[in-house]
Amino acid sequence: MKVYFDNAATTPIRKEVIDLMSNSMLSVYGNPSSTHGFGRSAKSSIENARKSMAKLLNCEPQEIIFTSGGTESDNSILSCAVRDLGVKKIISSPIEHHAVLETLEDLKMKGTEVDLIDLEDNGLPKISSLEKLLSADDSMKLVSLMHINNEIGNIIDLQLIGNITKSYGALFHSDAVQGIGHFNYDLKTLPLDFLSASGHKFHGPKGVGFSFIRKNSGLDAFIFGGPQERGLRAGTEAVHNIIGMEKAFEIAYKNFEEEKDYILKLKKYFIEKIKHFFPEAHFNGLCEDLNLSTYTIVNVALPLDVNKLQLIDFHMDLNGIACSKGSACQAGASDGSHVLERLQRTEQIKNRPSIRFSFSSFNTKKEIDYVIKVLAELN
User: Fold this and answer.
1) Which residue out of 80, 287, 323, 329 is catalytically annotated?
2) pLDDT, tens digit, for every residue of 146-189?
3) How many whole angstroms separate alpha carbon 178 and alpha carbon 63?
4) Domains in the chain, please, with CATH?
5) Of the residues 63, 149, 192, 336, which has the fewest C-beta atoms closer than 10 A?
């Protein structure tokens, strides 16, 4: 049996999306910057996709800038905010995605001040720490906090943190890669200046995403060479990827309530099974809380013998199960999860294997039963 429980790393592309992209590659092959009919057709496809996504997000089409994905969006927004907007200090957290943390390290070496806020034991940002850092001086600041943590599934309150950030006159960016396509965003009312997203997290293609950049932000070009993407990101657009992402986004919104309810029931069922077969299991962060974490992620520390730690990846893969010990972007790294390192307080938990299981509407209870059976063989 093959089971794919690694949807936080990437999701399978919907058939409707593949069909649309295939047709696009066959028929919409003009350069969108060309003025002839082939080019105008490609340009129209891109702008229709932009308008459709903007409507679902309740923002202006000009505020959607297509990119290669979340990493590019994070990198460009943070770097350009320092370069173009006079940002002297960036406030973030120690459990952000590496696309943010490594950009901050680069900016720090170039003279930007970087402060990481304190966390609650469950991984949520301490509001008192955020306010202390925001009020420390009069320098121009930007707060960058991910909406949903990609390893433990914690959800932060964008409205609350945005309101606090704005009360101090600071800018607010959120890496929403794990949230877009799974939660509703009203960008007209949310106090966000910038947002990053990636198409392959909601059953769209890889290699495409978008930045929300609020109009009149003051950001200048971050890739040079042409007028594409409102002059901010030069380069010939990947038309098939853009319209594929839009199609996946449209389907995600159309089926939102139905699929959320279905996946949430899968997560609840999985947690119940884990508790039954592993009573001493520890759920990392807030992923056990169905209200305070995303419905797509469970990260659990299993009470297994320390000698079996190195075998668990092999055992799961051998049985056809895809899951993760952390972010897919960390695969092959010698270090453990920087997120769990911050949260796991006791050696008892640290010495247990923590595994992230992430679900989609393509999964079933039968698959969960099989995974639990395979895990129980290690117990």
Assistant:
1) 329
2) 999 999 999 999 999 999 999 999 999 999 999 999 999 999 99
3) 20
4) 3-12+256-376 (3.90.1150.10), 15-254 (3.40.640.10)
5) 336
